[in-house]
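Hey, resending since the last one bounced:
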Amino acid sequence: MRRNTTIIVILSLLFSAIIGCTSVYEEPVDSYKSSSVHDDFPIPNSATLLQTITETGNPNIDNGAKYEVKGIGGEQGLSLPTRYFEEIQASGWDELEDKRAGHFHYFEKDAKVIALEIRENSIGVYEMVENAKF
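The structure tokens again:
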């Protein structure tokens, strides 16, 4: 009986240590500005333009931009920035959830489609061509 209690206590401590050491993702975004890709598509105010993309080699993308956003995306870009997505939707963009693919999320407004790529500490914003296949 004493041995079982000891094992339970040790396992509880190990479990608590593992949970306590897991990093907590806090979304760094509080305010927004217009992206350089589409005036009506918001990006975090803290976003710093890394690259303007005019030629992608992808026939479905018209143009795009990559931005550095410290803390966004979490480890390996796997955490969804919930408040940011809420801001995008509040700006009138509807997420095409059935089109999600890995790090890419697609939003549509007034027959325009924007692909948003969420990575660790960066985002990519791409304007899709009309009738793009994705």
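Strands lie at 32-34, 42-44, 48-53, 61-68, 94-95, 104-109, 112-119, 122-128.

Sorry for the duplicate.
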